[in-house]
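haha ok so turns out i had the wrong file open the whole time. this is the CORRECT one, sorry everyone. sequence first:
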Amino acid sequence: MTEQEIIHVMSQQGMRITEQRKTLARLFTEEDKSYSPKDVYDYMEQHYPGLSFDTVYRNLRMLHDLGVLEQFMLEEGVKFKLNCAADQHHHHLICLDCEKTISFDYCPMPEIPNLPEPFRIVTHKFELYGYCQTCDTSSNSEQ
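then structure:
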Protein backbone atom coordinates (compact mmCIF):
# COMPACT_ATOMS: atom_id res chain seq x y z
CA MET A 1 0.00 0.00 0.00
CA THR A 2 1.32 3.43 -0.92
CA GLU A 3 1.02 6.71 0.92
CA GLN A 4 -1.59 7.88 -1.59
CA GLU A 5 -3.62 4.68 -1.14
CA ILE A 6 -3.67 5.19 2.64
CA ILE A 7 -4.82 8.78 2.15
CA HIS A 8 -7.50 7.56 -0.27
CA VAL A 9 -8.79 5.03 2.30
CA MET A 10 -8.99 7.76 4.95
CA SER A 11 -10.73 10.10 2.52
CA GLN A 12 -13.29 7.44 1.56
CA GLN A 13 -14.19 7.14 5.23
CA GLY A 14 -14.89 10.88 5.40
CA MET A 15 -11.78 11.70 7.42
CA ARG A 16 -10.11 15.07 7.08
CA ILE A 17 -6.76 14.68 5.34
CA THR A 18 -4.43 16.76 7.48
CA GLU A 19 -0.69 17.21 7.10
CA GLN A 20 -0.28 15.13 10.27
CA ARG A 21 -2.21 12.21 8.75
CA LYS A 22 -0.19 12.50 5.53
CA THR A 23 3.01 12.34 7.60
CA LEU A 24 1.70 9.30 9.48
CA ALA A 25 0.90 7.57 6.17
CA ARG A 26 4.39 8.42 4.89
CA LEU A 27 6.06 6.93 7.97
CA PHE A 28 4.47 3.53 7.42
CA THR A 29 5.27 3.46 3.70
CA GLU A 30 8.91 4.59 3.94
CA GLU A 31 10.21 1.40 5.58
CA ASP A 32 8.86 -2.11 5.95
CA LYS A 33 9.02 -2.24 9.73
CA SER A 34 6.85 -2.18 12.80
CA TYR A 35 6.52 0.76 15.16
CA SER A 36 5.38 1.06 18.75
CA PRO A 37 2.96 3.88 19.52
CA LYS A 38 5.88 5.63 21.26
CA ASP A 39 8.07 5.26 18.15
CA VAL A 40 5.32 6.87 16.08
CA TYR A 41 4.76 9.61 18.66
CA ASP A 42 8.50 10.44 18.79
CA TYR A 43 8.62 10.65 14.97
CA MET A 44 5.47 12.77 14.73
CA GLU A 45 6.49 15.05 17.60
CA GLN A 46 9.64 16.03 15.69
CA HIS A 47 7.44 17.36 12.89
CA TYR A 48 4.53 18.64 14.99
CA PRO A 49 5.68 19.83 18.43
CA GLY A 50 2.88 19.76 20.97
CA LEU A 51 1.05 16.86 19.30
CA SER A 52 -0.49 14.67 21.99
CA PHE A 53 0.23 10.98 22.43
CA ASP A 54 -3.53 10.36 22.59
CA THR A 55 -3.98 11.87 19.13
CA VAL A 56 -1.24 9.67 17.70
CA TYR A 57 -2.65 6.55 19.34
CA ARG A 58 -6.21 7.35 18.20
CA ASN A 59 -4.96 7.66 14.61
CA LEU A 60 -3.05 4.37 14.86
CA ARG A 61 -6.20 2.61 16.12
CA MET A 62 -8.26 4.25 13.38
CA LEU A 63 -5.82 3.08 10.68
CA HIS A 64 -5.90 -0.40 12.21
CA ASP A 65 -9.71 -0.41 12.21
CA LEU A 66 -9.69 0.66 8.54
CA GLY A 67 -7.42 -2.29 7.70
CA VAL A 68 -4.46 -0.10 6.76
CA LEU A 69 -2.29 -1.19 9.70
CA GLU A 70 -1.84 -4.54 11.41
CA GLN A 71 -1.27 -4.77 15.14
CA PHE A 72 1.14 -7.21 16.78
CA MET A 73 1.71 -8.00 20.42
CA LEU A 74 5.40 -8.35 21.22
CA GLU A 75 7.06 -8.78 24.60
CA GLU A 76 7.64 -5.03 24.92
CA GLY A 77 4.06 -4.19 23.92
CA VAL A 78 1.93 -3.46 20.90
CA LYS A 79 3.45 -2.61 17.52
CA PHE A 80 1.84 -1.44 14.28
CA LYS A 81 2.90 -2.25 10.73
CA LEU A 82 1.51 -1.55 7.29
CA ASN A 83 -0.99 -4.26 6.40
CA CYS A 84 0.70 -6.80 4.14
CA ALA A 85 -2.50 -8.29 2.66
CA ALA A 86 -5.49 -6.09 3.34
CA ASP A 87 -8.19 -8.22 1.73
CA GLN A 88 -6.85 -11.68 2.48
CA HIS A 89 -7.06 -13.77 5.65
CA HIS A 90 -3.50 -14.50 6.73
CA HIS A 91 -1.24 -15.10 9.70
CA HIS A 92 2.35 -14.23 10.64
CA LEU A 93 5.72 -15.52 11.66
CA ILE A 94 7.41 -12.81 13.75
CA CYS A 95 11.12 -12.64 14.51
CA LEU A 96 11.76 -11.83 18.16
CA ASP A 97 15.10 -10.23 17.29
CA CYS A 98 14.60 -8.01 14.22
CA GLU A 99 10.76 -8.04 14.28
CA LYS A 100 10.60 -9.10 10.64
CA THR A 101 7.11 -10.41 9.88
CA ILE A 102 6.45 -13.07 7.30
CA SER A 103 2.84 -13.62 6.32
CA PHE A 104 1.40 -16.97 5.35
CA ASP A 105 -2.04 -17.94 4.06
CA TYR A 106 -2.41 -21.31 5.77
CA CYS A 107 -4.94 -21.16 8.61
CA PRO A 108 -4.80 -23.87 11.30
CA MET A 109 -8.15 -22.96 12.89
CA PRO A 110 -10.23 -25.66 11.19
CA GLU A 111 -7.81 -28.28 12.48
CA ILE A 112 -7.81 -27.30 16.15
CA PRO A 113 -9.52 -30.13 18.05
CA ASN A 114 -11.58 -30.03 21.24
CA LEU A 115 -12.60 -26.39 21.27
CA PRO A 116 -15.02 -25.60 24.11
CA GLU A 117 -18.68 -25.87 23.21
CA PRO A 118 -20.88 -24.01 22.68
CA PHE A 119 -18.58 -21.41 21.25
CA ARG A 120 -18.90 -19.72 17.88
CA ILE A 121 -15.60 -18.22 16.74
CA VAL A 122 -16.08 -15.06 14.69
CA THR A 123 -12.46 -13.99 14.31
CA HIS A 124 -9.01 -15.01 15.42
CA LYS A 125 -5.36 -14.09 15.23
CA PHE A 126 -2.58 -16.62 14.82
CA GLU A 127 1.03 -15.51 15.20
CA LEU A 128 4.14 -17.61 15.66
CA TYR A 129 7.17 -16.09 17.34
CA GLY A 130 10.75 -17.22 16.82
CA TYR A 131 13.84 -16.20 14.87
CA CYS A 132 14.16 -15.55 11.15
CA GLN A 133 16.94 -17.24 9.22
CA THR A 134 19.22 -14.19 9.42
CA CYS A 135 18.84 -13.70 13.18
CA ASP A 136 19.01 -17.43 13.94
CA THR A 137 22.22 -17.73 11.94
CA SER A 138 23.81 -14.72 13.64
CA SER A 139 22.85 -15.91 17.15
CA ASN A 140 24.19 -19.40 16.41
CA SER A 141 27.53 -18.02 15.20
CA GLU A 142 27.99 -16.04 18.43
CA GLN A 143 27.91 -19.21 20.55
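The longest helix spans residues 53-65.
again sry for the mixup
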